[in-house]
């Protein structure tokens, strides 16, 4: 056996019960059921290919017997048998390739369907899940899970089933044509071989686990040090990072040596079992020839069938280990699909009638964990076409209002209504279509500026995209770039400054044309000049919209019809800018501090 260096990120393989393994295999069935006709045709091709494969040694036996005469000069060329020999070989190759061609559609479609289902399911899961998840781990699980489906289907159709079919056909030939001792010995050799392979593979898996864990750790350390290149250089820690990396690689090296050594022991043990077993059977067969009980062709047939049987068994260790990995990977992906969405549409949910877009928070309370309240009895109304601002220290619960309005979470108590409709009674799609947001931290797709603005409404015309960019005070800047709107912004928009990303987000919100707008500290990343220019644009945009502004800079919300001051999840003050200054409370104190900073 020659081990394939297949890399997996697992640090260990969880033990799956028989029920879990059966469930994993059952979960594959819906993904291949659509092409069940192809599966049956592929299995039929497999059977024909294996019958032809086993038939080759049978014809070879008769060829040898026909030529093995006492006087070679009197032998007749068995042309028909030779033609049959060639035809069987050709049939084996033809139907093997036909099986591959037929089955590839099943395998690739299953991978595609599973990938789509998982991505759709991930988008349907709640924000809570996505805040707690590890993006890299989810990405790796998705990749490995879909690949595991392909691996198991490949192993079943191309390795396991062909070997079983061939084993049964060879057993049938031995049972019907020869002494029972050949069948018994063959079965005994196969059982000893399988038991030895499974036992040694289980033992050496620990070395592979260690290797994979340390390889993942080394990769993480290398990437982490390169991502933080400036920090490493600033503290002069190049040598420290190299030593840390090398220490991990030293452990990987030791585990790799043990893995290779154990693999060589496995290879030798397998070869020894095969060699001893075949030799013993060949001694019996040769004795049969000497005794006149068997022909020379029988000897050739037995030798060829045994070699034909044991060649695929050489890969049993790889198949066994890979199937175990694949079942675990597949179980991970199906476990992910089993996670229930926290926020779902009500059974009778209807489309939101946004009307003029009036928003009402009625005694809203909310917590992420029971022991920590985020919002407590919050009540306020944003009249249609009006602008209400929310201010307060970090952690006061301001941004949570926006998340609840989008229904990323459901309120713990109370209700949120738009145009008199509880948002829990309408469809999420219609709710989110009616609300636009400019977030504090703008994350862009690793695509062009045009793509990122048009993402709000992909069917928008170029003129509409340009108009939205102009309103966000970024059109002129984009036009000065060498590639203009086709400039790629980089991963998470890192090629743009904070202010530029913010203006792209504003343009995107404008293009969406929602009835309700949320500005979550939308100008926090802008310089004073850009902030003043965008404030004019935002004021124009908000004129015909119901607007909720979450602000840190009080100077940006002095024109709000109502300002809410939050502290520890409660509204402690409310009123216009002038009223709150006259109140001389928390808002007036915050205003004074910011004026002094300015």
List the SSEs and their pairings.
Elements: H1 18-33, H2 36-67, H3 79-124, H4 127-132, H5 135-177, H6 180-227, H7 229-234, H8 238-290, H9 296-313, H10 316-338, E1 359-369, E2 372-382, E3 387-392, H11 398-405, E4 413-418, E5 421-422, H12 428-433, E6 435-438, H13 449-454, H14 462-471, H15 475-480, H16 498-512, E7 516-520, H17 528-542, E8 546-550, E9 562-567, E10 570-575, H18 577-583, H19 586-597
Parallel strand pairs: 3-8, 3-9, 6-7, 7-8
Antiparallel strand pairs: 1-2, 1-4, 4-5, 9-10
Helix pairs in contact: 1-10, 2-3, 2-5, 2-9, 3-5, 5-9, 5-10, 6-8, 6-10, 8-9, 14-16, 16-17
Question: Number of DSSP helices?
Answer: 19
Write down the overall geometry.
elongated
Spatial order of strands in the largest sheet:
6-7-8-3-9-10
What portion of residues belong to β-strands? 5-15%
Mean pLDDT: 83
What value does the Rg take, in angstroms?
Answer: 36 Å
Summarize the helix and strand pattern as letters.
HHHHHHHHHHEEEHEEHEHHHHEHEEEHH
Oligomerization status of the protein chains: single chain
Overall tally of domains: 3
Helix content: 55-70%
Largest sheet: 6 strands, mixed
In the CATH hierarchy, the third-tier topology of the largest domain is known as ABC transporter transmembrane region fold
Please tally the β strands and state the result: 10
> Unreliable stretches, pLDDT < 50, 5 or more residues?
1-13
Q: What is the H level of CATH, i.e. the homologous superfamily of the largest domain?
A: ABC transporter type 1, transmembrane domain
The level-1 CATH class of the largest domain: Mainly Alpha
| CATH architecture grouping of the largest domain | Up-down Bundle
Distance between the termini: 74 Å
Class per helix and strand makeup: alpha/beta
């Amino acid at each position: 056996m020659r081990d394939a260096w297949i890399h997996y990120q697992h640090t260990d393989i969880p033990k799956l019960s028989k029920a879990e393994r059966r469930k994993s295999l059952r979960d594959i069935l819906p993904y291949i059921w659509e092409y069940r006709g192809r599966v049956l045709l592929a299995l039929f091709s497999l059977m024909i290919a294996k019958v032809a494969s086993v038939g080759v040694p049978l014809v070879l036996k008769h060829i040898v017997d026909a030529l093995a005469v006492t006087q070679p000069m009197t032998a007749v060329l068995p042309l028909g048998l030779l033609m049959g020999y060639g035809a069987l070989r050709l049939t084996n190759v033809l139907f093997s390739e036909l099986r591959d061609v037929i089955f590839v559609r099943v395998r690739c479609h299953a991978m595609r369907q599973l990938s789509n289902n998982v991505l759709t399911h991930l988008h349907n899961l709640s924000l809570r899940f996505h805040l707690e998840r590890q993006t890299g781990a989810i990405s790796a699980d998705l990749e490995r899970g879909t690949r595991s489906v392909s691996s198991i289907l490949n192993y079943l159709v191309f390795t396991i089933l062909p070997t079983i079919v061939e084993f049964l056909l060879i057993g049938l030939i031995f049972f019907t044509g020869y002494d029972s001792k050949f069948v018994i010995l063959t079965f005994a050799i196969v059982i000893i071989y399988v038991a030895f392979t499974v036992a040694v593979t289980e033992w050496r898996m620990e070395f592979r686990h260690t290797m994979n864990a340390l390889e993942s750790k080394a990769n993480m350390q290398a990437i982490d040090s390169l991502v933080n290149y400036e920090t490493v250089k600033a503290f002069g820690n190049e040598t420290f990072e190299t030593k840390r990396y090398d220490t991990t690689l030293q452990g990987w090296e030791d585990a790799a040596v043990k893995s290779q050594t154990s693999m060589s022991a496995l290879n030798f043990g397998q070869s020894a079992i095969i060699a001893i077993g075949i030799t013993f059977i060949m001694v019996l067969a040769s004795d049969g020839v000497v005794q006149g009980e068997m022909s020379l062709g029988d000897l050739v047939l037995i030798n060829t069938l045994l070699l034909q049987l044991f060649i695929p068994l050489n890969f049993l260790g790889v198949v066994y280990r890979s199937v175990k990995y694949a079942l675990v990977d597949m179980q991970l992906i199906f476990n992910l699909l089993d996670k229930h969405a926290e926020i779902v549409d009500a059974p009778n949910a209807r489309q939101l009638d946004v009307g003029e877009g009036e928003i009402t928070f009625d005694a809203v309370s909310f917590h992420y964990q029971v022991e920590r309240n985020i919002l407590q009895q919050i009540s306020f109304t944003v009249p249609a076409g009006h602008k209400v601002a929310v201010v307060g220290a970090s952690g006061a619960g301001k941004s949570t209002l926006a998340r609840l309005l989008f229904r990323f979470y459901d309120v713990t108590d109370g209700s949120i209504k738009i145009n008199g409709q509880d948002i829990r009674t309408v469809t999420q799609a219609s709710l989110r279509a009616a609300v636009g947001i400019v977030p504090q931290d703008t994350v862009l797709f690793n695509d062009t500026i045009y793509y990122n603005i048009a993402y709000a409404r992909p069917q928008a015309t170029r003129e509409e995209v340009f108009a939205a960019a102009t309103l966000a005070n970024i059109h002129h800047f984009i036009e000065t770039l060498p590639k203009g709107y086709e400039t790629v912004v980089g991963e998470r928009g890192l090629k743009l400054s904070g202010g530029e990303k913010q203006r792209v987000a504003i343009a995107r919100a404008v293009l969406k044309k929602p009835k309700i707008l949320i500005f979550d500290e939308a100008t926090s990343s802008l310089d004073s000049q850009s902030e003043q220019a965008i404030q004019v644009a935002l004021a124009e945009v908000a004129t015909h919209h119901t607007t909720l502004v979450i602000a840190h800079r009080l100077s940006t919300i002095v024109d709000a019809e109502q300002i809410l001051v939050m502290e520890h999840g409660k509204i402690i003050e409310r009123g216009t800018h002038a009223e709150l200054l006259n109140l001389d409370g928390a808002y007036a104190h915050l205003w004074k501090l910011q004026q002094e900073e300015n």
